[in-house]
Specification:
Number of strands: 7
Largest sheet: 5 strands, mixed
Distance between the termini: 73 Å
Radius of gyration: 36 Å
Number of helices: 12
Shape: elongated
Strand content: 5-15%
Helix content: 55-70%
């Protein structure tokens, strides 16, 4: 039962605002602080009644009512009004309590909570927030001079005074903790959004939009890592460039939508086949670059020949069209003396040899 009440209360407290010009976070912070200070002033009003200061107690009841009004404003698309009411009520009530009960009871600390709330408000400019902070600090200094001369109300004992001091410190610490929590939560939420956006940008810059394979830029970075790893450990690798045979005729005969379908289908086949063998990227147009992370070019050649055969046997279906395609590959082993660009160029040359010799083959 308690857990159900807790869930219902949290759902009620975190209810979103309907106005697009107001933020949910500020509304929830105000609601939380209003609850804290309402409970606080209820306790204070009972203590004041115990001391037989009835007028001050009635004033605190009025303050509780205003805080309840501030709380309601956050549900009525009037969060800014609620913020103004909260700040004015806290400043007024704590000033009266400071003057009536005494500076040593630390009521004045609670005024600083209003600064935290103002800084949390995104609609206020930084200039306004700094000015508000300066005015509040000046106000508290002025109150401190008056508090020295102002006659305070009678209290019962030193233990009662300590209870008031501890309670004021506790409420200030709780309000500070709640405000800082919302600051950190909002900051972390913004950071998370930025990180996700950066990841999206990195993916957009690294992945080919059509095939979802790595693009040329991303593959070049991977090749640099492979070359670095080779220089450090001596681990060799092989490169192959594959090109769809007579791809232009596919576009001319069946349309560019069919050509895109072929590339996407091939990309899926490549990704599945290269899993555990190496990596694959769309190198440009209908060209793909394969990286076999092995030091045995014969194994890579055999694997690439198997892939070539699977492609040749595969029947492509798009709309009312059914057809077969073939691919030609040029495969080379990385040579540190040539460098990565020369090795890629060498693979490209082998590819064109295969094209000239009839296509649908692997030139190793």
């Amino acid at each position: 039962m308690f857990s159900n009440f807790k869930r219902s209360f949290i759902k009620f407290l975190t209810q979103d605002v309907r106005s697009e010009s107001e933020t949910k976070e500020l509304a929830i912070l105000l609601r939380s602080l209003n609850i804290i200070f309402c409970l606080y002033f209820i306790i204070i009003s009972f203590l004041v009644v115990f001391l037989e200061h009835y007028i001050l107690s009635l004033l605190l009841v009025f303050v509780i009512g205003l805080l309840a009004g501030s709380f309601i404003c956050t549900y009525e698309n009037k969060t800014q009004l609620g913020l103004q009411i909260f700040n004015l009520v806290i400043i007024f009530s704590t000033t009266i309590l400071t003057l009536k009960v005494g500076w040593s009871k630390n009521y004045h600390w609670l005024i600083y909570v209003t600064i935290l709330v103002v800084f949390f408000d995104l609609q206020k400019s930084l200039r306004y927030k700094l000015l508000y902070s300066s005015i509040i600090t000046t106000f508290i200094i002025i109150v401190s001079f008056f508090a020295e001369e102002y006659p305070v109300l009678r209290t019962t004992s030193i233990y009662f005074n300590h209870t008031i001091e501890i309670m004021n410190i506790s409420v200030f610490a709780l309000s500070l903790t709640v405000s800082v929590y919302f600051f950190c939560a909002t900051f972390m939420k913004s950071e998370e959004k930025i990180m996700q956006y950066n990841k999206k940008l990195i993916r957009m810059a690294s992945v080919d939009a059509l095939t979802n394979l790595s693009n040329r830029r991303c593959m070049n970075d991977q090749l640099k890592d492979l070359v670095y790893n080779y220089n450090r450990t001596g681990k060799r690798f092989c490169l192959a460039i594959g090109d769809v045979d007579l791809f232009k005729s596919v576009n001319d005969t069946y349309g560019h939508d069919t050509g895109d379908y072929v590339l996407v289908t091939l990309a899926t086949m490549f990704s599945e086949y290269m899993d555990g063998k190496g990596s694959i990227a769309r190198w440009g147009g209908e060209e793909f670059l394969f990286v076999f992370e092995t030091d045995n070019i014969d194994i890579s050649c055999s694997q690439l020949e198997q892939l070539r055969g699977e492609i040749a046997l595969y029947e492509f279906h798009f709309k009312e069209h059914s057809f077969h395609i073939t691919m030609t590959f040029g495969l080379v082993e990385f040579d540190e003396h040539l460098g990565i660009e020369a090795v890629i160029s060498y693979a490209d040359n082998k590819l064109y040899i295969g094209k000239e010799n009839g296509r649908d083959q692997v030139v190793c």
